[in-house]
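hey m, so remember when u said the tokens were messed up on ur end? i reran from scratch. heres the input so u can diff it against urs
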Amino acid sequence: MHFSVNWWRTLHQQGTVFNESLDAKIHGVMAFTLWFGVLAFTIVYFYLLDRRYRLLALEEDREDREVQQAIAERVGAATS
């Protein structure tokens, strides 16, 4: 439970979703909106995480090719 809800009751309403009795006191449309937002954020998070992972793999592949090319150039320069 978030402490600010209990500490500063004049600033915040009581817990509506995660209260002691776990009885959600939230209207159906608001509950749908809350869970839809959580689901949408989670999907976007995992999408961006996947994009970042793929970008990292591409960067590592490029670096490996550059190292192999530099080695090939040095070996070619040493033999001539």
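this time it looks ok to me. DSSP finds two helices and no strands in the chain. if urs says something different then somethings off w ur setup not the seq
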